[in-house]
UniProtKB/TrEMBL annotation:
Belongs to the glycosyl hydrolase 29 family. It is an enzyme of class 3 (hydrolase). The lineage of its organism: Bacteria, Pseudomonadati, Bacteroidota, Sphingobacteriia, Sphingobacteriales. This is alpha-L-fucosidase. Transmembrane segments: none annotated. GO terms for cellular component: lysosome. GO terms for molecular function: alpha-L-fucosidase activity. It comes from Pedobacter nutrimenti. Keywords: Glycosidase, Hydrolase, Signal. Its EC number is 3.2.1.51.
């Protein structure tokens, strides 16, 4: 008996000393990695808690690609507008001279930030440099920057300052892949390639440290363009650089797209552990169930058309409606993630009317219903066909974001053993309690009143332990 007690104590103490839970540790132990995940489980510091609570954010892709907007000399490019430089229909020299024409005289960072705040965004991810290598800040390490344009002014600074003033946190997007830098390679095949790429690595480090120094208010980096073989083989360099950035900017948030481990595994290391502070792979697609996110933090980024990030004058195919985007936001939060909606401003600095309209419609809904999105998490309740449950962190408050109102107006809910609920009401009519009906030991109907439904409606309630079930209201609307 004593031996068993001793064994159990040593077993658990060993994990405690390593700062890992038994489950996490057993996954970790399979392969010994030098450049794998730096941490197991979620970050629990204040910066990360703040990130986790955002719920909804804005992405902005802006750069030289906004000038052609998906078209060059009367010909239409069928890919994503920000990739037009890679198209044979546009000579590289034409693209590389666009900076001479970049002069966004109507750019008003305050209007952008105000629009984002009214839309309900709590953070922005902003492109400092996309794959074309053009820098929207006056980088000391490049000759291809905003200061060489007729506009000249530092756009990154203007965005960081304006959004911060509006209470919106800023994350900087940075593409490691850089088509402009002479040292960039997709693959390192020769010694000459490796030498050139060493120069590129130092350039990348310099630019990242420069961004941290210039814009100390930022909360994190959103990395992109990290999938090519050349970068995937830089496990040690990227690992050290990540540590260096975190050291100079404590609290910095970095997603899972920055680096690969020594075996080339990306996002998740060779042991299946997340590399970075949150999973950054949900691009234009959302998880469907809580198991899909493996207990990690995550965000999902979404375009309005199928796949256009930078400004595209044509915007073909299905354009997502405000209703669809609100539903995606609700779904993301219900599965413990943040939802981030992309905007592609025009070359003159204005935001297209379709995006302004969407922002207005989403904002109207957010104004009324933000309580069900901000600081909310996975509710632990079985999903129902009418929509999504969210739960206010650290409380028993549950929200039902109803995207499909049943013809019967009865919303089915299923609660865990021993749980009941009270104070059920529409967020939009806090003074009126809703009727409910018990179906069996765990299931209930919440009855919606007759009402016009133009966008998702939100019902709130408090979960209680079953012994208090007597306090169940059956009130008339
Ligand atoms: O190639 C880019 C694309 O242009 C866009 O920036 C998206 C946004 O996440 N990232 C890359 C594709 O994954």
């Amino acid at each position: 008996m004593n031996k068993i007690v001793l064994f159990v104590a040593v077993y658990f103490l060993s994990f405690y000393a390593l700062g890992q839970s038994p489950k996490e540790n057993s996954r970790r132990s399979s392969i010994n990695l030098k450049y794998g995940a730096h941490r197991l489980g979620k970050r629990e510091d204040l910066d990360m808690k703040r990130w986790r609570a955002y719920g909804f954010g804005q992405f902005i892709h802006w750069g030289l690609y906004a000038i052609p907007g998906g078209e060059w000399k009367g010909k239409e490019y069928n890919g994503a507008a920000e990739w037009i430089r890679s198209w044979e229909g546009m000579p590289k020299s034409d693209y590389d001279s666009l900076y001479l024409k970049f002069n966004p005289v109507n750019f008003s960072p305050d209007s952008w930030a105000k629009m984002a705040r009214k839309m309900g965004a709590r953070y922005i991810t902003f492109t400092t440099k996309h794959h074309d290598g053009f820098c929207l800040w006056p980088s000391k390490f490049s000759d291809y920057t905003i200061s060489k344009t007729p506009y000249q002014k530092d756009i990154v600074k203007a965005v960081v300052d304006a959004y911060t003033r509006e209470g919106i946190d800023v994350i900087l997007y940075f593409s490691v892949m850089d088509w402009h830098h002479p040292g960039w390679r997709y693959e390192l095949k020769t010694t000459e390639d490796s030498v050139a790429f060493e120069g590129f690595k130092q350039f990348t480090r310099n630019q990242l440290l420069e961004l941290l120094q210039n814009y100390p208010k930022i909360k994190g980096f959103w990395f992109d363009g990290t999938w090519d073989k050349s970068w995937v083989r830089q496990a040690r360099f990227a690992d050290e650089l990540e540590k260096e950035m975190r050291k100079v900017h404590p609290g910095l948030i970095i997603g899972s797209r920055f680096r690969a481990d020594e075996n080339g595994a990306r996002h998740f290391d060779s042991n299946g552990d997340l590399m970075g502070d949150y999973e950054q792979g949900w691009e234009r697609v959302l998880p469907n169930k809580i198991e899909d996110v493996h207990g990690n933090d995550w965000d999902a980024i979404m375009t309005v058309p199928e796949n256009q990030w930078g400004y595209n004058k044509f915007w073909k195919g299905h354009l997502k409606t405000a209703f669809e985007l609100i539903e995606m936001t609700a779904k993301s939060v219900s599965l413990g993630g943040n939802f981030v909606l992309n905007f592609g401003p025009q070359a003159d600095g204005t935001i297209r009317v379709e995006e302004q309209k969407l922002a207005g419609e989403i904002g109207e809904w957010m104004e009324q219903n933000k309580e069900a999105i901000y600081d909310c998490e996975y509710a632990g309740l079985e999903k129902q066909d009418w929509g999504y449950f969210t739960k206010k962190r650290g409380s028993e408050k549950i929200y039902m974001i109803v995207c499909n109102v049943p013809l019967s107006r009865n919303l089915r809910i299923k609660l865990p053993e021993g749980k009941g609920f009270k104070n059920v009401r529409l967020i939009s009519r806090p003074g009126q309690l809703l009727n409910s009906e018990k179906l069996n030991a765990k299931e209930y109907f919440i009855q919606l009143p007759q009402m016009e439904v133009k966008s998702p409606i939100v019902v709130e309630m408090e979960l209680i332990s079953k012994q208090n079930e007597g306090s169940f209201e059956k009130a008339k609307i």
